[in-house]
Amino acid sequence: MTPATPVTSAKTLRIDRIACTGQGLCGELLPELIDLDEWGYPIVKDRAVPDHLRAHARRAAAACPLLALHLDAGRT
User: Fold this and answer.
1) With contact defined as beta carbons under 8 Å apart, do 15 and 72 qualify?
2) Closest of 74, 76, 75, 70 to residue 26, by C-alpha
3) In sequence order, what are the residues at sequence separation of 6 or more whose Cβ sits closer than 8 angstroms to the Cβ of residue 8?
4) Cα-based distances in Å from 76 to 5, 9, 18, 62
5) Residue 70 contacts by C-beta under 8 Å, 6 or more apart in sequence?
6) Three-class HEC string of the chain
C-alpha cells in the first residue's frame, strides 16, 4: 500500500484581459502580487497566491468593478 500524498489546494490569480479596463484597484488592494503598468493595467508578479495572502486576494477579486480578477482554485 502506498502512503497517501497530501493534497493541498493552491490558489492562483488570473486576469481577464478583455474585461479589465485598468481601474487599478487590484494593484492597490494586493500590491504584494500585482503591479500596475503606466496605464493602470495589472501585471501579476506571481500567479500563485501564498496562504497568508489569500484573504487579500479574495478581497481584491471581489472589489474589481468589472470582475476581471479571478482567484482560481487548483490542486497541487
Assistant:
1) no
2) 70
3) 75, 76
4) 10, 6, 28, 24
5) 13, 14, 15, 16, 61
6) CCCCCCCCEEEEEEECCCCCCCCCHHHHHCCCCEEECCCCCEEECCCEECHHHHHHHHHHHHHCCCCCEEEEEEEC
Q: Using one digit for the tens of pLDDT, what is the confidence trace for 32-75?
A: 999 999 999 999 998 999 999 999 999 999 999 999 999 999 75
φ and ψ at residue 40, rounded to 5 degrees: 95, 5
Question: Cell digits for 9?
Answer: 489546494
What tens digit of pLDDT does each residue of 5-36 get? 555 678 999 999 999 999 999 999 999 999 99
